């Protein structure tokens, strides 16, 4: 009588087990990719493609209604050899440094005041946050309505009071025009700086401050040894955003000063606008845009490295 071999049920091999365990993970990864694809497509269409096209156009002589003629790096050579470009870049850098410093100091002081939980701080916070929601063009036109040399409210009021005989040209002097633009920008954007710094301050545990108070630390000691060191990531974000937005300044100077007096308030973006839409020199405008992009990239890298060393 033949005997049947006694064998147990076939065990799944390691490869089959790994295959079954990986399949749900692969399905989840594939599903996640589907959700991310629209965002990737938007970035590609709205950022990557225009950036690549700008770089390509910068190597051509290309007017708005003419042909594209390859000229290599002549547009970049023209920009480097142009004293007006360096003067514009210098002014943009000066504006960026001043606005960044003033915005950070004022925003930091307001954030400290708001987080102190004194009476009336919600109203105080709202007063500075509301201007953030309006655009730079709107804020610039409001400022122009107040300070315009012909129809400005200030000149009209001073004239009615008999304090002036002739209208004051608020934007006819570089120093005065520069100060007005800086003050307008600070008024419009300091609320955002305050909110960002305030969110970082609120993330610091109150137990740390209580422990410092038990050790006898005063207000300044807590600020310098606790608040500022723990706030460095937020400070880095604020500085990078402010520097980038300041280097891209256009609306306020286009509306308020129109680049004057004597071209002293022309920013790099304003120069790009003139090259593209007044001179119709798209190749040179693209080269200026690429240079500005490289400058912003280098500044961002330098800021990251400096702040990383400070954290270490």
UniProtKB/TrEMBL annotation:
It is a multi-pass membrane protein. It is found in: Cell membrane. The keyword Lyase does not apply. The keyword Transport applies. Keywords: Cell membrane, Membrane, Plasmid, Transmembrane, Transmembrane helix, Transport. GO terms for biological process: transmembrane transport. It comes from the Bacteria. One of its GO terms (cellular component) is plasma membrane. The chain crosses the membrane at residues 31-60, 94-114, 126-147, 167-187, 230-250, 282-302. Gene3D superfamilies: MetI-like (1.10.3720.10). Belongs to the binding-protein-dependent transport system permease family. PANTHER family: BLL4140 PROTEIN, DIACETYLCHITOBIOSE UPTAKE SYSTEM PERMEASE PROTEIN DASB. This is Uncharacterized protein. It comes from Cnuibacter physcomitrellae.
């Amino acid at each position: 009588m033949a005997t049947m071999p006694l064998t147990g049920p076939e065990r799944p091999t390691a490869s089959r087990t790994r295959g079954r365990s990986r399949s749900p993970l692969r399905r989840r990864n594939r599903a996640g990719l589907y959700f991310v694809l629209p965002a990737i497509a938007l970035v590609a269409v709205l950022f990557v493609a225009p950036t690549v096209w700008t770089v390509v156009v910068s190597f051509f002589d290309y007017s708005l209604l003419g042909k594209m003629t390859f000229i290599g790096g002549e547009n970049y050579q023209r920009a480097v050899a142009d004293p007006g470009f360096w003067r514009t870049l210098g002014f943009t850098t000066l504006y960026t440094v001043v606005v960044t410093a003033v915005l950070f100091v004022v925003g930091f002081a307001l954030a400290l005041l708001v987080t102190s939980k004194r009476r009336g701080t919600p109203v105080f916070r709202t007063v500075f946050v509301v201007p953030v929601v309006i655009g730079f063009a709107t804020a610039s036109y409001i400022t122009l309505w107040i300070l315009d040399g012909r129809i400005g409210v200030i000149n009209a009021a001073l004239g009615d009071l008999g304090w002036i005989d002739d209208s004051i040209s608020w934007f006819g002097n570089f120093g005065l025009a520069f100060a007005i633009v800086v003050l307008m920008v600070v008024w419009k954007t300091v609320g955002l700086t305050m909110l960002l710094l305030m969110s970082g301050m609120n993330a610091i545990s109150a137990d740390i401050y209580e422990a410092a108070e038990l050790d006898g630390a005063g207000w300044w000691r807590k600020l310098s040894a606790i608040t500022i060191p723990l706030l460095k990531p937020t400070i880095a974000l604020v500085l990078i955003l402010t520097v980038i937005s300041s280097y891209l300044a256009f609306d306020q100077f286009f509306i308020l000063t129109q680049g004057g007096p004597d071209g002293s308030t022309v920013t790099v973006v304003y120069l790009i606008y003139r090259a593209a839409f007044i001179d119709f020199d798209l190749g040179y405008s693209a080269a200026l845009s690429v240079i500005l992009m490289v400058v912003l990239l280098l500044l961002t890298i330098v800021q990251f490295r400096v702040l990383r060393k400070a954290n270490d």
